[in-house]
Each structure stands twice: as structure tokens, then as C-alpha cells.
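[09:14] KT: can someone run the structure on this one? pasting the chain below
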Amino acid sequence: MTTKRIILIVLTIISLIPVILSLIGSINQPQVQSNLQLYQTNLVLQASEFSGDNISEFEQIRESVLGKNPDEAALKQYKEALKLSQKNLTQLETNLEIINQQSDLIQESETTINSIPIFSATNEQQKLQTEVNRQKEEIETIKIKIGLLEIAQGNRTQGLGTLDNIELLSFSPSVHYTADILSHLWDDKPSVLSDSESTIKNELNGWFRYYSLNQLYQVQNRNNDLVSLQEKEQEAAQKALIKLTIVAIIPVLGGLIGIGIIIFSLVQLAVKKESSILAIDERFKWKTPWTLEIPWQVLVVGFLFFGQIVLPILVSFLNINLTELTLRGKAFYVLGSYVAMSIGGIGVLYLSIKPFFPLPKGWFNFNWLSNWIVWGVGGYLVALPLVVIISLINQNIWDGQGGSNPLLSLALEGQDIVVLAIFYFTAAIAAPFYEEIMFRGFLLPSLTRYIPLWAAIGISSLIFAVAHLNLSEVLPLTVLGIVLGMVYTKSRNLLSSMLLHSLWNSGTLISLFLLGSGSN
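[09:31] RB: done, C-alpha cells below
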């Protein structure tokens, strides 16, 4: 065994440790998808207040998303979210207890100076405790919304019982006072506590804010404010209706077109196999001048070692505390990290294949004059139904756990145009450019020297999915990777798979932005 291979083996082991730990750690992390359902529920509740002249289209949207009764469907959704949040809290408290027990053992074994233990709480303890506190507050906020939905459905006694329960067991003072205000507003003899209006505006959002303010103004007999509120509510409902149309209807239409393309391709495959769009055989293989050691070297050194070891070490010298960064700061951090990782990865790729220049025909093609737009858009339409179906199955498998890309949560929070622009550049331009060069442009063709083309597409897609470091995303991302691989293989143009990748990430970001803005 050569020295180079020994070094590669060592680097592989070192690089895989944080990858495996990240994958294991993602098991107990909630998926962003569970929050997305609540965001969409909030939009539907807001849109349900629309009372324009022509609401037939809205009725179709409402029934297709949450059924005929938005209040009832929303209550069911929030109760499911409550169960999931309580499950997450139990897991977090269990993890915290285990770490605390380990800390106690360390503390008992440490020597003391003047009876003061040397041991202090670890960063992991503090991080977990913060997460536990955040989860508790989230559970109480969900309960407030459940109470309001119960009241809205005419179950005032049950709703007040939910709110009173929060008052007795509340972890957060602000949540406690919000529940107290709402209880007094819907009591048998309604009354108004001090700072009720400002508290409702600060602590509640969307439909819940309008519903509570409506009750407050009625109790206070503020008719002018009530009329103004209802006008604003209608305006917000109309905007929510438009957002629902974009989030729900447009992807459905795209998916239906995608299903049509899939059916056409299957029929074409059955009728004329060799000339079919789906035909993938040895004719499409690349001529690969290097052995398997080169892709191993590029993935381990350029992708894993640089991204998981070198980059975090470099960041540590900057003394950046991510928890203290603003949303803009986090956006710039994500962009800077990704650009640095891309430069490092492509640099290692270039140095690794440089001895084999000039490359055989078909490698790393960027052909602007071909039909790459047709392949990219067509691939996106095909990916829509396939990934959605797999994602629905995947959610049942993971039951809301398994982690998600942290960029999704940040995009949900971000309503700042600068933040959104940075996220868009990162996800829709930088990521497709780098990942398509690495996984489709380089890894997929390299594997065809040793295995059939269909297997190379599958394996490169699986590695692409695992590289995102979230177990719950492996299955849907593998399916997306297969479509990307098929498009690149057939078009022989990286622009086509980059366009597909960019369209997919763009669609996700736009949906997150619209859903996030609907909660305000």
C-alpha cells in the first residue's frame, strides 16, 4: 500500500467522524416540514376571512389544502404539532439528563480548591438547556393557539380551560400573561387587563392576532378601531389567498405536467426502447482516464476533510458566536462558508485531475447553444411529483424527526430583503454550481469506469443526499439526485442539471418566504 493511500485512509476516517455524528445527531432533530404545515395552516386561516365578491376560486384552494372547515382542520393540525413538540421536549430532556449525569460523575472525580469544584457546565449542557427552554415556550404558544381555535369553533369552555391550564403551568412570563389576557377577554364577564392590545400585537400573529384584537375592540366598544381592523384583515386575507395560490396551486399544476411527461416517457420506452428519453445504457458512458482513487481523493480531501475539518478550524480562529449573530450575520456566515467550501473543493478537484489534461470529450460540458433549458425545466417538472410522493412516504417513516437543512429554518424567519437575496444566491446559484460540478460533472462519470451507468447514477445520488447530513432528507434527495443524474446523462450539459437544481432550490425558498411572511 502506498503512502498516499495510507494518508487517504486516515483522512477518510477523520472526515467521516463528524459526518456520522451529524447524521446520528439529526435523528432527534425536528424536521422543518412539521413547521411548514403550521405556517400553511396560518395562511389558510388568514385567507378564510376573505369575503370578496368572487370567492369560488378561494373555496377550491381551501378545500384542496385543509378541507371545508379551516378552523377544524387547523385545530387538528395544531394538536398534532403539540404532540410532536412534546415528543421533542421529552427527547431533549432525556439527552440533558444524560449529560448532567455524566457531568456529575466528572465533578465528583475532580479535585476541589477551597471546596469549590473546578468543573463547570459544558457548552453542550448550555445548548441543550436553551433548546429545552425554547421547546417549552413553543409548546405553550401552540396551546394558546389551540385555545383560541377551540373558542372560535364555539367550544368556549374548553378553550378557556386550555388557556387557564397555561396560566397555571406556564414556563414563560410573556406567554403566561398573554393567556391571562385572552382568558379575561372571553370570560362570562369579559374584562381588559393592562397592556392587552400591545401584548396581543407582540405575542400573536396572523389570524390569531386579528381574532384576539377583534374581541378586544368589541369588549371595549371601539367601533372605529373595529372597522379599521376588519379592513386590514380583509387586505391580509386577500394577500394570503394569493400566497396560497402560489404555494399550493402552481406546484400542483407543475406536478401534473410532470406526471404527463413521465407517462409519455414510459410509453415511449415501451414502444421504442433505444430512442426513449428514459433509455440509459452503455452508449452514454464516459471515457474515464483515472482510477477510483481520484474520486476518493476529491470527495475525502476536497469535500469532506475541507468542509468538516479544515473550514470549522479556520472559523474557530475568527471567534464567531453563531448564537449571537443577527439573521443578516447568519446569512453572510452561511454564504461565506459555502463559497469557501466551493473554492476548496473545486481547487482539490482541479489539482487531482490536472495530470490527465486534456480530458476526453464529454467532460464538464457547458454548452450554452444546446437545448439545456428544455432539459432543465423538463427535469424540474418530472422531479416535482416524484420527490413530493417520496417526501410524503418519508414523513410517515420519520414522524417529524430526522433533521433538516438549517438554511430552511433561517429562510422561514427571514423577511429582510438583504437576507433573502443572500440566501437565494447561496441556495439557487452557488449550491447548484458547486454540487453539480462535484456530483454530476465529476463523481457520476468517474463511477462509470467500474459499474453500469444506472448504478453510477444511483450511487452518486445517494452520496449527494448523505452529504446534506440529515437522515430524513436522504430518501427524497436521492430521488432528486437520480433525476439530476438522468438529465445530465442525457443532455451531456452541466447547465441543464444546474438549471434543474436552481429551479428546485428557488421553488423551495420562494415557498418558505411566502409561508414565513404569512405569519406576520
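[09:33] KT: thanks! The chain has 18 helices and two strands.
[09:34] RB: yep, looked fine to me
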